Amino acid sequence: MRILVIEDEPGISGFLKEGLEEEYFAVDLAFDGKTGLDMAILNEYDLMIVDWMIPGISGIEVCRQVRKAGSSVPIIFLTAKDTLEDIVFGLDAGANDYIRKPFAFEELLARIRVQLRRNNPESDAITAGFVTVNPVTHQVFCRDTEIALTPKEFSLLEFLARNKDKVCTRSRIIEHVRDMHFDSDTSIIDVYINFLRKKLDCSGCGNIIQTIRGVGYIIRES
After folding, report:
1. Can you give the residue ranges of the OmpR/PhoB-type domain (predicted)?
2. Measured between alpha carbons, how far is residue 168 from residues 39, 135, 183 in Å?
3. Domain extent listing, the chain
4. What digits encode the pLDDT tens for the residues 72-105?
């Protein structure tokens, strides 16, 4: 899952990036409104976290422009504003939720999960065939056997399972899977697919990931 954070305070943006990556998210940072808006329009994100008061284009205007472009990506505002009028103003601009500064990371993480769950009701436990992926506990089970995966392997399997029955191109995987979007060589995906298959095969689930030659990979429900 890929998140865009638009926040001009280095301490907060660094804190968010570190915390979210520990939760297996891929995180991009922007430190001003124009850069953040350009990134939001150019790339495909699963969620955005936007500070209200940022240099250049305000967080409110970023939100408006993202919605004007037709994107339904969930947006959570970070704001020091706390009046009812301000909150309503932000939600009317297209935000899905807001959290006041200072905030507890655990609360923000819970709000992120709520938004992802609304987009995908199976976000707490994703099943595909005999495989179950739990993004909250970071556990993977094949039948009743738990499979130990590295963070990158887990992120790759989660993305494929979340998009089960859809062909995931290599370029789309590169964009969404933790740390892979820093590597332009899509052959790295094939390496990690092989790692996944070997680990899943030990419990009889190695064939769940199918190759679409010349395109990418797919996990089928059955």
Report:
1. 123-221
2. 21, 19, 17
3. 2-119, 126-219
4. 999 999 988 777 788 888 888 889 999 988 889 9
